[in-house]
Amino acid sequence: MSQYRPQIRICFLGESFVNGTGDPEFLGWTGRICVDAYRKGYDITFYNLGVRGETSTELKQRWLREVSYRLPKEYDGRVFHL
Length: 82
Description:
By secondary structure, this protein is of the alpha/beta class. It is flat and about 40 Å long. The longest helix has 15 residues, at 56-70. It contains 3 helices and 3 strands.
């Protein structure tokens, strides 16, 4: 029998640091957070919505629409922004 793991959906918003630019393991800090949460017993679905070179104004225009698609009310959802 499989162990129950609480489901969490996480949206990460930002720019190059969020999408892992320059990380030789292609995880960035977002991937490391998700690996750690999985090891602690969570079933993680994550959406890396970082866009390299994006401005704060551009992010402000898209973030709510992007997050709303991915975090329906029936899921335990989180949003991280750098």
